[in-house]
Structures are given as C-alpha cells and as structure tokens.
Design a protein that fits this description.
Layout: H1 28-31, E1 50-54, E2 57-61, H2 66-80, E3 88-92, H3 100-111, E4 118-122, H4 128-142, H5 151-166, H6 172-191, H7 196-220, E5 225-228, E6 236-237, H8 250-264, E7 268-272, E8 275-278, E9 284-286, H9 292-303, E10 307-312, E11 333-335, H10 336-344, H11 355-361, E12 365-369, E13 378-381, E14 391-407, H12 413-427, E15 431-436, E16 440-445, H13 457-467, E17 471-486, H14 491-505, E18 511-514, E19 520-526, H15 527-542
Parallel strand pairs: 3-4, 3-10, 4-7, 5-7, 6-8, 10-12, 11-13
Antiparallel strand pairs: 1-2, 8-9, 12-13, 14-16, 14-17, 15-16, 17-19, 18-19
Helix pairs in contact: 4-5, 4-6, 4-7, 5-6, 6-7, 8-9, 9-11, 10-11, 12-13, 14-15
Bound molecules: adenosine-5'-diphosphate and aspartyl phosphate (PHD).
GO molecular function: aspartate kinase activity; ATP binding
Catalytic activity: L-aspartate + ATP = 4-phospho-L-aspartate + ADP
EC number: 2.7.2.4
Length: about 550
C-alpha cells in the first residue's frame, strides 16, 4: 500500500512506504509515494527509512530533506526513463492468430505503430485449446496404440507445422513440443485419467507453440523478438489447476525479468497468455478460460505501462453479444467497474478477473478489432467519460441454477442467513445474485467459474442435503441472468423501461438484484426466453425501437 504525500500547515505528515516490488524508473514520478512522521520544525525530518527499490534507483535515506530527495529522484528518473522503454502491452487472442495469414497481419499491425515499444501476449492458435482438451479426453479411453490417430492431435500437428512452413519458420522450433504432446497423450492413455493438473499442462502447449512460431517469424523479418513462457518468468499462481489465481509476487518478478532483459538487450517480448506456475507444486497452471486477457493486464500493471490493448475479432466491447443479436454495436467508453461486471456476468469478450490489475495500476484498457484496426474500439478507464446512453450494455449468463430456501426453524434472519452462507462457504460454492426476506432467501449459483466448468451434480446434491437440515429447498435449473450494465443512478428509468419491454414480451422476472453494484441490475428469467429478452431490451434501449421477440 502507499500513501500520498501531504503537505499542510505547521506540521507535515508523511509516512514512508518501502516499495515491495520493482518498478522501472520510467514510472517513478507518478508512482512515487512516501510519507513518514516528521519533527515539528519542518526543516530536518526525523529518521525516515526511505527505501524505494528500482533498478536505477536504490536510496536508503536516514535523514532527508524532501526537496533533496525529490531532486535526487527526478535526476535518476530523467536519465533512466529515456525514449527507449516498453510503452504498452498488446494481447492477441486465438481468433487473431488462427493461421499463418492472421499472424502476418498481426505482425504488420504491431509494426504499424513505430513509436510503441509493446510487450506482445498471444493465445493459442484458433481453437487449439479446445482441441488439446478434447485430445486429452479421447486419450483416456482410446488405448495407447490409437493415440497417434486421434483427430485433434493430427489437426494440431498439421496446423502448427503448416503455419511454420507458410511463415518460413524452421519447424524444428515446435518439433519438441509436438513430440512431447504425443508422449503426454500416451501417458494419459496409460494412466486412463485426465486430471486438472494434466489438463493445464496439455493446454499450455498451445500458447508455447504459437509464441515460438510468432517470435521466429518476427526475427526472420528483421525485428528482434524474444519468446517467453510465462511460467518461466515469474507468473506465480495458486495451485488451483484450470482456475489458478495470480499471486502478488508475480508483479515484481515479471517486471524485473522483462525490464532487465529489455535494458540489457532490447527485443520485442512475445509472452504466452493464459499460463502460470503453481507456487507449491511448480507445475504449469492456467488462469481460467480466456485467461490471456489477465496475462496482459498483469504485465501492464507490473511495468506500469501507458496502455493495455486487447485485440479481438469484434469492434470492442459491444452493447450485447453479437451472436445473440446482430444489431449489437461497440461501446466507446467503459469504466473499470462496468467492464468487470460485464465480464463477470457473462460477456465472454473479457476474462472476469482481467480488469482488477488494470484498475489497481490505473492503466487504461483498449479493446480493439484485429480484423478492423481502424475501428476506435472501447476504452476502459477509471473514470466515467460522460455518455448520454441510459444503458451501456446488456449481458447474458445462461444455464444458471437458482435456489429458493425457506427456513423451517423460524431462525431469526441473522442466524438463518449466517447458517445458509456458512454451508456455501464450506462447500466452496459461490453465488451471483441474492434476494432475501425475514425467513427466506433466493440466490443464483455461479454455474461455471470459468465458462467451461459446470457445477457437478453431486455438488448440488450435497448442497441441497445440507440446506434441507434447516430449510425447505427448491432448486431450479436452466435459468439465465440478464444483466443491464449502466449508470444505475438512473435505475428507475432503466427498470421502468425494462419491465415494460418484458411485460410486453410476456416474460415473468423470477428474481431481481439492484443496489449492491453501482453499475448492474440483474434480472433472472428462464433459459428458453433469455435471448429474446436480450434482443427486445437491446431494441428498446439502443435502437429506440419496440421490443422484437
Ligand atoms: N458484449 C460483448 N462484446 C463483444 N464481444 C462479445 C460480447 N459478448 C460476447 N462476445 C463474444 O466474445 C468474442 C470475443 O472474445 P474471445 O472469443 O475471447 O476473443 P479472443 O479469442 O480474440 O480473445 C466475440 O467474438 C463475441 O462473439
Ligand atoms: N487459449 C486459452 C486462453 C485465451 O485467453 O484464449 P482467447 O484469447 O482466444 O480467449 C483459451 O482458449 O481459453
């Protein structure tokens, strides 16, 4: 934590905070924060242990006059933060690097910004991750001798070898990975099991290969590039395989490695998205599906960069999922809060946890279309850039489970709620939306913490069994959460319009949540009517039209 410098009146209060991680001097002025207790005479400050660790600046001051300190800092910053420093991070997802041609276009796009010094984060090519997972599932039961003929393995081999050849890159750079991949599948066929730890290891081959091919292509074009496996440069995570969380130690480690390499031998860093290393096991972990977005924002925060760019196959964050409604259009500005709610409540376009590092680092995130680079995209920042729109976007989270729980013991609401939530905590099940009364509570369960993981049925059975010890439980599946993201200071207008639309549509809202979030109103409806709700609401809020079913 750091506290800002406050001067005021006869007594000046400072508190010194020693930085616990490296920051390149280029970000020193705006990042420098220090404070400490001082003598009342304002001339000589009490002994302050001022320790600011950065590569170009290591200052231990026992007694310091602030002017002297700031001068020293400024001197160091000017020499260290010359023109040639990393400026931004650019992330390209699977759809942007799905073929040799796409990789060529991404390379041209990167090189079309001569004043940028980007770190590049890549996902696996196209749908390689899905195919690696499918190959692993097949290997469990196909038999050792049939592993080589698994279709998905053949597809992956062909795609990567063909891409290397088409880009004029020596296929030997991925040969070992392809050999190891086949050996791994044979191992799975012999063990006849496909654990979460093995799933993370197998999917890592996708990003490891795409980044190697791309870095080699840039080097062949005469642009010095250096490939990095994120799990080798300090992406330290929990050991929660398929769903690992970034640990704080990642930030200084990644900053130091990328910064040291950059200052000693500048080259465009090409980093694997999605991957990390478990701090306890040392095994490869993944950050949850879509996790390359998170890789990019972590690097942005680590290096204190000017901007984080997330290149997709759509013109930014749209007013709804374009797969549901073709009239969706791009949203020019979002706040971090709005983007986080969008991502959490189902907008696949951003990883649910990716906004947090950007928000903490106060670094703007720009979502752009790699197929249409002239489109302005969406700029995500801390403050709201005023918009006349009542609503920002409509998000849909399908296949949600709702629980209606009515107390049978007339417990006071405090005891009842506490008991209900303790059961959820014990079973490690998170909830999305909650509505309570004196002796009853309704809630929606997080159906897939990372999109592709479903709550297994026995988790639900265990949950109902525990709850039925204190309540009558009604479990309803195949529900959807329609989230209206916008400025809920205008919630009355939003709700009035939304309920008018849904009434005309003949849809009954089964639960509503508004107030906890300052940017989101969530409505629970049936799965089978959710998409028509999104279309009708979009028509009413963004097209001035009347509801279209
Ligand atoms: N509100 C939304 N705005 C933009 N895209 C969305 C939204 N909701 C869902 N999507 C889907 O997310 C896709 C982009 O996310 P993703 O597939 O992760 O891209 P990439 O693989 O390039 O990172 C789009 O193609 C679109 O179909
Ligand atoms: N390849 C991983 C990580 C990722 O972020 O992919 P994409 O950028 O294509 O969403 C996945 O499919 O989840």
């Amino acid at each position: 934590m750091a506290a800002a410098l406050h001067f005021g009146g006869a007594k000046t209060t400072l508190s010194v905070v020693s930085r616990d991680y490296f920051l390149p001097p280029s970000v020193l002025p705006q990042k420098l924060r220090f404070a400490g207790s001082v003598a009342s005479n304002n001339k000589l400050y009490g002994p302050l242990r001022f320790c600011y660790i950065s590569r170009a600046l290591k200052v231990n001051c026992e007694a310091v006059n602030v002017d002297v300190l700031e001068k020293k800092v400024t001197e160091n910053v000017s020499f260290a933060s010359g023109g040639n420093r990393i400026t931004c991070v650019m992330k390209f997802g699977g759809s942007s690097v799905a073929s040799a041609e796409r990789m060529r276009e991404v390379a041209d796009l990167i090189l079309s910004f001569p004043n940028e010094r980007p770190v590049i984060v890549l996902s696996a090519m196209g749908k390689t991750t899905n195919k690696l997972l499918l190959a692993g599932e097949k290997a469990v039961s196909c038999g050792f001798l049939n592993v080589s003929s698994i279709d998905e393995l053949r597809f992956i081999k062909d795609l990567h070898i063909r891409t290397a050849n088409e880009l004029g890159v020596d296929e030997s750079i991925i040969e070992k990975h392809l050999e190891d991949l086949e050996q791994l599948l044979k191992g799975i066929s012999m063990m006849r099991e496909f654990t979460p730890r093995t799933k993370d290891y197998i999917v890592s081959f996708g990003e490891c290969m795409s980044t190697r091919i791309f870095a080699a292509y840039l080097n062949n074009k005469g642009f010095k590039a250096r490939q990095y496996d994120a799990f080798e440069i300090g992406f330290i995570t929990t050991d929660d395989f398929t769903n690992a969380e970034i640990l704080e130690a990642t930030y200084p480690a990644v900053a130091k490695r990328l910064y040291d390499d950059w200052t000693s031998d500048p080259a465009i860093p090409i980093v694997t998205g999605f991957l990390g290393k478990g701090w306890r096991t040392g095994a490869v972990t993944t950050l949850g599906r879509g996790g390359s977005d998170l890789t990019a924002t972590v690097i942005g925060k680590s290096l204190g960069l000017r901007e984080i760019q997330v290149w997709k196959d759509v013109d930014g964050v749209l007013t709804c999922d374009p797969n549901i409604y073709e009239h969706a259009h791009s949203v020019p500005y979002l706040t971090f809060d709005e983007a986080a709610e969008l991502a959490y409540f189902g907008a696949q376009v951003l990883h649910p946890h990716s906004i947090k590092p950007a928000r903490e680092g106060e670094i703007p995130v720009r979502v752009k279309n790699s197929y249409n680079r002239s489109a302005p995209g969406t700029l995500i920042t801390k403050s709201t850039i005023t918009s006349k729109a009542v609503l920002t976007s409509i998000v849909l989270k399908r296949n949600v489970t709702t629980l209606d729980i009515v107390s049978t013991r007339m417990l006071g609401s405090l005891g009842f709620l506490a008991k209900v939530f303790s059961i959820f905590a014990d079973l490690g099940i998170s909830v999305d939306v909650v509505a309570t009364s004196e002796v009853s509570i309704s809630m929606t369960l997080d159906p897939s913490k990372f999109w592709d993981r479903e709550l297994i049925q026995q988790e639900l059975d265990n949950l109902v069994e525990e709850l039925e010890k204190i309540a009558i439980v009604n479990l309803l599946q195949r529900r959807s959460i329609v989230s209206l993201i916008g400025n809920v200071k205008r919630s009355s207008l939003i709700l009035e319009k939304a309920f008018c639309v849904l009434r005309n549509l003949g849809v009954n809202v089964q639960m509503i949540s508004q107030g906890a979030s300052k940017v989101n109103i969530s409505l629970v409806v049936g799965d089978d009517e959710a998409e028509k709700c999104v279309r009708a609401l979009h028509s009413a809020f963004f097209e001035g039209g009347h509801p279209k079913a």
